[in-house]
Amino acid sequence: MVIRPTTSRNLSRLLRIPTQCRSSSQSSSVNAAEVSHFNNLASTWWDPYGSSRLLHQMNPLRHDFISSCIESQPDPTSSTNRRYLDVGCGGGIFAESAARLLWTKSVVGVDPSSQVISVAKAHARQDPLLLEPGRLEYQNKAVEDLPIPRIPEEQFDVVSLFEVIEHINRPAPFLSSCLPFVKPGGWLILSTIARTWTSWLTTNVVAEEVVRLVPRGTHDWSKYINEQELRRFFRAQDGWGRDGGLKSQGCMYMPAVGWRMVPGGEKWGNYFLGVRKDSTRS
């Protein structure tokens, strides 16, 4: 793989997230090539030693980061009966685990891949708890296809985008489409990868070509987004991230150890980022 030097023009045209953009309700974030890629991986989604094993191992850290965000600014209205929207849910690794939490009221998982949604539904049927009405629902849709909530009761306490945005061609319109689904006081939580030479070496070379931890073609380095770019985007959104409601945390996969939170890792590799929708406007 050959990567051309990143010029300022290339950054502006291809990689930087615009600070503001209009909603993309009339266009879709779905990339047919990405959907095809994950369709091909659907049958191994729940194999803990298969192509999704890194996602299985990362899942506990997802919950840890969500908890750290919510606990940093407690909202009494969401301490129980919490509602989740998992965008790009894949085969349901996070969605299932969230649906089993004591404080969860409901989880909705959406994904444009019909095959991974079929896998998610089939796996959920193995657990009677997940079959309780309203507990866990899967929809074969892009987030742009969902009806926009009209009242806070239709919104969600947590909207999650785990390992999704690096597979999107137009990340700013996609993020704008997700924002209306977060209720006041709720959080949008995502995980992704910084666009650095270190991340190219670890994900595109080592993970895909050398160790084969993930299938070849899973990652496109040019779509990675730096933490500061996401911060710039969210700081430009009215009613988001005020009073410390914008947090990030680096994480790193260590062979024979697993995923670990790494302070400062958001500058060069995998990271989580959470932004809170302000409860009130100033």
Structure description:
The protein has about 280 residues and is of the alpha/beta class. Helices cover about 30% and strands about 20% of the residues. The protein has an eight-stranded mixed sheet, with helices on both faces. Strand 6 (about 245-255) and strand 7 form a beta hairpin. Helix 3 (about 55-70) crosses helix 4 (about 95-100).
Spatial separation of the terminal alpha carbons: 49 Å
Give the spatial strand order of the biggest sheet. Answer: 3-2-1-4-5-8-6-7
Global Rg:
18 Å
Q: How many strands, what sense, and barrel or not for the largest sheet?
A: 8 strands, mixed
Number of helix segments? 8
Structural class by SSE content: alpha/beta
Total E-strand runs: 8
Give the amount of beta strand, in percent.
15-25%
**If you average the pLDDT, what whole number results?**
83
Poorly predicted sequence stretches spanning 5 or more consecutive residues: 1-16, 18-26
Give the overall form.
globular
The secondary-structure element order is: HHHEHEHEEHEHHEEE
Can you give the helix content as a percent range?
Answer: 25-40%
Enzyme class: transferase
Family: Belongs to the class I-like SAM-binding methyltransferase superfamily. UbiG/COQ3 family.
Subunit structure: Component of a multi-subunit COQ enzyme complex, composed of at least COQ3, COQ4, COQ5, COQ6, COQ7 and COQ9.
Membrane topology: Peripheral membrane protein
